[in-house]
Design goal:
heterodimer; A: 117 residues; mainly beta; 0% helix; globular; B: 117 residues; 7-stranded mixed sheet; 4-stranded antiparallel sheet
């Protein structure tokens, strides 16, 4: 079974600085998807960034980028120029390519990020 | 973009009564929807996978007779908590995957906070 581990329960960063959130996963699959989701106090789950395992290039979305190390099964999220609105819970998630009723997301336990002014 | 509407956002019910939560995909068709439960300061736990026109697939440990799922159309899935008890109090979140979108198409509802008194 797949597992997702986020080893940092809480982190804080000063506004405008850079922070990296860690995520490791365990799978025997060769093809899969990885995601970072953000859950602000409103509790709405928001997709931050997505990575396909077959792509070697790290995904980037504006201030958010990932460091995907497939051999090490590591998928860290880097947030540059942190903003107060980045304060939220961040969940790393794994998904196998789906067929039938599969394709559900497997979440890590989350990292609570606080951006301080 | 894809929008998933979840209602109600908050509900308080008496112990022993039933509560229905709706999850609608507003601008896309969703063959598959997922129902999660989230306890305070914890991650999302998959409860069941809802497939249009067929029976839901429940995760191990989830009582299918207590948590009734119906996915009667490509835009609507409902979760009914039957004979609710205080231990069912939690935050319930649905997500939907647009048909044919592979690893791209997860959109989450805004969640329902259920309190059973």
């Amino acid at each position: 079974a797949q597992t997702v581990t986020q080893s940092q329960p809480e982190m804080s960063v000063q506004e405008a600085e850079t922070v990296t959130l860690s995520c490791t996963y365990d799978t025997s699959e060769s093809n899969y998807y990885l995601f970072w989701y953000k859950q602000p106090p409103s509790r709405q789950m928001i997709l931050v960034i997505r990575q396909e395992a077959y792509k070697q290039q790290n995904a980037t979305e504006n201030r958010f980028s990932v460091n995907f190390q497939k051999a090490a099964k590591s998928f860290s999220l880097k947030i540059s120029d942190s903003q107060l609105g980045d304060t939220a819970m961040y969940f790393c998630a794994f998904m196998k390519p789906f067929g039938g009723s599969q394709g559900n997301l497997i979440f890590g336990k989350g990292t609570k990020l606080s951006v301080k002014p | 973009g894809a929008v998933v509407s979840q209602h109600p956002s908050r509900v308080i019910c008496k112990s022993g009564t039933s509560v229905k939560i709706e999850c609608r995909s507003l601008d896309f068709q969703a063959t598959t929807m997922f129902w999660y439960r989230q306890f305070p300061k914890q991650s999302l736990m998959l409860m069941a996978t809802s497939n249009e026109g067929s029976k839901a697939t429940y995760e191990q440990g989830v009582e299918k007779d207590k948590f009734l799922i119906n996915h009667a159309s490509l835009t609507l899935s409902t979760l009914t908590v039957t004979s609710a008890h205080p231990e069912d109090s939690s935050f319930y979140i649905c997500s939907a995957r647009a048909t044919g979108t592979g690893g791209y198409g997860y959109t989450f509802g805004s969640g329902t906070r259920l309190t059973v008194v």
